[in-house]
Amino acid sequence: MAVLGVQMMMVKQQVSEQGMFPVLRQLRDLGYDAVEVSQIPMDEANTADLEKGVTELGLDVGALSVALKRNAFATGDSLDTDFDKIVADCRRLGTRYVRIGMMPYEAMASKDACEAWAAECEEQARRLAGEGIALLYHNHHVDLAQFDGERIFDLVRRVAATVAFEVDLFWVQRGGMAPRDMLRQYSGVCKTIHVKDFRVLPLPPEAVDLIASGNPEDRAKFMTLFNTNVQFAEVGQGNMNWPDLLPAAELAGAEYFFVEQDDQYGRDPMDCLRDSREYLRSIGY
User: Fold this and answer.
1) Which pTM was predicted?
2) pLDDT per residue over 136-162, tens digit each?
3) Residues paired with residue 85 on neighbouring β-strands, in sequence order
4) What is the pLDDT of residue 7?
């Protein structure tokens, strides 16, 4: 069975305020067995606490986030400038996967730019493979956009055959592709999965008044409400069919399930993670 963990982007504020190890202890107490580190500095203090989490709490550091190149949006280490440190951190923590969370915006703008970026990923993936580490690419809905009839996701796979995938099933669903189809097509290269739910909100009462007014400006406001009434949800509190999807993900080769909720809408992230864990336990995970 895949190891169940947390995408630590959700608790980056808690790590900043409380320190890494106390947060790891809380996650362990909730019943999670692994973490994926993202948007948290891999400085010596945090890395030492992660190592302590491995040795004292039995946590698995399943994946570390990296950028392909250092840039204004990179919040952690980059493969072009920090390669040796990344490898050293992985060996220190027993981590076999590093992941790129998103391609640069400019790489999404054209087929040529996307292919060039993917080729650079392939070069770094081969370097990492020589160190016993696999490079993963994490999708968003934009990765289902097409250039000349080819999805960006498929383009990356074609150009960067050494790169495996972290499949975010929420973004697959939001991109208009059935998650089961994605898992089937990428069976064998889906190494980690982001488990996040997709909630659709009822329209607020004021929407009725807006559409009834006949005013074009009110209609435009109504359409904004109508088109933006989706949320990231605690696992089990949305519309994703997890009893069907999680076994399918394991059949596709997933080794880790990382719970992630990009926005908690004012709730304490630990409460959200508790709710998600309780639901997953209720379906056998």
Assistant:
1) 0.95
2) 999 999 999 999 999 999 999 999 999
3) none
4) 98
121-146 burial code (b ≥16 CB/10 A, e <16): bbebbeebeeeebbbbbbbbeebbee
| Torsion 70-73-77-78 (CA) sign | negative
Please give the single-letter amino acid code of residue 131. E
Q: Which domains does the chain have, with CATH numbers?
A: 3-196+235-282 (3.20.20.150), 202-230 (no CATH)
Query: How high does pLDDT run on average in the chain?
Result: 96
- For residue 137, list its beta bridge partners: 100, 165
